[in-house]
Design brief:
mainly alpha, 9 helices, 79% helix
Length: 194
C-alpha cells in the first residue's frame, strides 16, 4: 500500500510541475512569444518592399509585397499580444483592418487607423509601434491599389516604409525588454527557491 501511495504522490508531483500556472505560465507564454515573434522575417519583407518602392517597381508588385507584409504582421502581433497582454484588444482591433482594405480609401485609413479613430484607447504606449507594423504597409497597399503614378507617389510610399523600419526597431526593443525581464525573473526565482 505504501508503494502505491508513494507512486501516486510522485505522479501527482510530476504532473503538477508539468503545467506551470500564474506568473510561471505567463513567463513561459511570453518567452515563447519572444522566440517566435516573426519580427526578423517581417523586417526582411519590409526591407524588400522598401527596395521595390525605391526602384519604382510596378504598382501591382508593390501591392502584392505590401499584402505579404501585412500577413506577416499577424505573426508579429500575435506574439506581441502574448508578450504584452495589455495590448490585446487594441491590436485585435488593428487586425480587423485587413478585412476592409479592399474598399478602404487613404483618407479613411488615415483617420480610422493612423489617427486611431476606429481603435480603442491606447492602453499602453508600448502597443503603438506594433500597430504601425500593420497600418503603414496597409497605407502602401491602398496607395499601390490606386496606382503609383510618378515620383511623388513613390516617395510617399517610401516614407511610409521608412517609418515602418523605425517601428520595427521599437518592436524589437520591446521584445528584448520582455526577454530581459523573463531572464531576470528566472534568476530571481532560482535564488528564492534555494
Amino acid at each position: 500500500m505504501r508503494k502505491e501511495c508513494a507512486a501516486a504522490f510522485v505522479c501527482f508531483s510530476l504532473f503538477g510541475c508539468s503545467e506551470p500556472s500564474g506568473p510561471a505560465a505567463n513567463a513561459q507564454a511570453a518567452t515563447s512569444a519572444v522566440q517566435g515573434s516573426g519580427i526578423e522575417p517581417y523586417a526582411l519583407l519590409a526591407s524588400e518592399l522598401l527596395t521595390d518602392i525605391r526602384i519604382q517597381r510596378d504598382a501591382g508588385v508593390i501591392q502584392a509585397r505590401a499584402d505579404d507584409l501585412i500577413q506577416q504582421s499577424d505573426v508579429v502581433l500575435d506574439a506581441f499580444k502574448l508578450a504584452y497582454p495589455q495590448c490585446r484588444s487594441y491590436l485585435d482591433a488593428v487586425l480587423t483592418l485587413r478585412a476592409s482594405l479592399a474598399e478602404m480609401s487613404l483618407a479613411a485609413l488615415e483617420q480610422d487607423y493612423h489617427g486611431d479613430g476606429k481603435l480603442p484607447e491606447l492602453p499602453d504606449p508600448v502597443c503603438y509601434h506594433s500597430k504601425d507594423l500593420v497600418v503603414h504597409p496597409a497605407t502602401v497597399l491602398v496607395m499601390a491599389k490606386g496606382g503609383l503614378a510618378g515620383d511623388d507617389a513613390y516617395l510617399e510610399a517610401e516614407l511610409e516604409m521608412v517609418e515602418v523600419m523605425a517601428h520595427i526597431e521599437q518592436v524589437k526593443q520591446a521584445f528584448k525588454r520582455v526577454e530581459v525581464s523573463i531572464e531576470q525573473q528566472g534568476v530571481a526565482n532560482d535564488s528564492t527557491s534555494n
